[in-house]
Specification:
elongated, 2 domains, 16 strands, alpha+beta, five-stranded mixed sheet, four-stranded mixed sheet
Length: 442
């Protein structure tokens, strides 16, 4: 194509467009849709026209190109018709700009643009609202990169803390493994299993109908020999009351910032709500059950203990066994401080090879002894937990709520607003023996 003259390229583009138009006109006169063959032919002609136009644009200056296209438009427009919307279109449906009007006028007066405006409430598009218009026939590039084009209308968008807050946040995953419940009360009463006694045993058929004899040691009745008495098992239970606690915090913002929906949404989601969840996770592990604190897992009586044994991997594995054999439960996660996860990642065998793949491996001890590892700073370094976290329940009384007011101190006269975030919840451990606290200090 590079050996063709501009006249040849123009003729090729014109011929392709006229060929496509002829096919479309024939179908229009017969009041039918395109056949499959006609559809393929039209696409082929349009591809050729597009290719020729692209080559012309490379080889002609803007003024000469405009004149060539204008002449071509005049020729094609000879067979143009006016549609029901008052737009001039060729038989193939191509939009032809009205003369005497600028491209901007044609665009803003088009039904496509009016339909686009109907998508925006009060004619204003929200910052995150998608804008999707129908294709408009006139293609004149308006670019925001140039101060002599659309860039002259660009206004700075102050978005404040749109990104970056997550650099100060830790992943919160404890909710993923505990049982999540709800309550409509300010206190939750539940039954905690403190111990179990299983005396189940084979029992011979009774050979005597004699009643138990007089009390023996400790006042217990003595069963008659051959009486066929079954052994008694039991559960040691305790009724626990878990008060619903309130976790809350607030922050001031200016009324000017309040009008920026994107910024406020970021502050609420990425700071205020996150802060509630972070404190909630801390309370579920380290709450000391005094004042307004939860009774956290680390302070529940009856949680098993695993002392350091040989190395971290051996210690962690033996703790998992205790959950199974003593707690009669199936562990579903480890809770470890990031420093201890690092220590495990750096463990090497006698030949200096990392157990968990080293710098090029997946690392992060995932999984560890076939259990997921939850890294959390709520667990102190040197301590870990393993257990069946389904036997710990978080009851939501009131999920995170947001309130705002300027009736705080002198905020009204300073154009400040206080945004308050709070949640209410209770936490309980149903079976302490299903959990093991692990000593990871050598």
């Amino acid at each position: 194509m590079t050996t063709m003259t501009l006249a040849d390229l123009t003729g090729q583009m014109k011929h392709a467009l006229e060929s496509a138009r002829a096919i479309a006109k024939a179908a229009e006169e017969e009041n039918r849709d395109f056949t499959e063959a006609e559809t393929g032919q039209i696409r082929e002609h349009m591809a050729k026209a597009t290719e020729a136009k692209a080559e012309i644009e490379k080889r002609k200056g803007n003024d000469e190109l405009r004149k060539t296209l204008a002449d071509l438009g005049d020729d094609i427009a000879l067979n143009a018709k006016t549609d029901q919307n008052g737009q001039r279109r060729t038989a193939s449906g191509f939009h032809l700009p009205e003369r005497g009007k600028s491209i901007g006028e044609q665009f803003t007066e088009s039904p496509e643009y009016k339909g686009l405006l109907a998508q925006a409430p009060s004619g204003q598009f929200g910052q995150k609202q998608r804008v999707q218009s129908e294709m408009f026939g006139v293609k004149s590039l308006v670019t925001g990169a140039s101060d002599t084009s659309g860039g002259a209308f660009v206004q700075n968008d102050t978005i404040g803390l749109q990104v970056g807050i997550d650099a100060f946040q830790r992943p919160l995953r404890l909710r993923d493994v505990v049982t999540n419940g709800t309550t409509t009360s300010d206190t939750v009463e539940y039954v905690r299993v403190t111990s179990t006694t299983n005396n189940a045993a084979p029992v011979a058929e009774a050979t005597s109908s004699a009643a138990p004899t007089a009390p023996g040691g400790a006042g217990a009745l003595v069963n008659a020999t051959g009486g066929g008495y079954k052994p008694e098992s039991g559960l040691a239970l305790a009724k626990i009351t878990a008060p619903v606690k309130t976790i809350a915090h607030w922050m001031p913002v200016t009324k000017r910032a309040l009008s920026d929906a994107a910024q406020i949404r970021t502050l609420i989601d990425a700071f205020l709500r996150y802060g509630l969840e972070e404190e909630l996770e801390d309370q579920m592990i380290q709450g000391d059950n005094t004042g307004e604190n939860f009774e956290g897992l680390g302070n529940v009586s009856g949680v098993q203990a695993q002392a350091w044994d040989t190395n971290a991997l051996v210690t962690l594995r033996k703790a998992k066994t205790k959950v199974r054999t003593v707690g009669r439960s199936v562990a579903n996660a480890y809770l470890l401080n990031p420093a201890d996860v690092e220590m495990i990642d750096l463990l090497q065998d006698n030949e200096g090879r990392y157990y968990f793949g080293g710098p090029s491996g997946s690392g992060s001890a995932q999984p560890l002894w076939n259990l997921p590892v939850i890294e959390t700073e709520a667990v102190p370094a040197g301590t870990g937990y393993v257990g069946d976290f389904r036997k710990a329940i978080l009851w939501d009384r009131e999920q995170a709520t947001i309130q705002m007011t300027d009736s705080h101190l002198d905020f009204f006269v300073r154009n400040l607003v206080a945004i308050l975030a709070e949640m209410r919840a209770a936490f309980g451990v149903l079976q302490p023996s299903a959990f093991v606290e692990i000593d990871l200090t050598a």
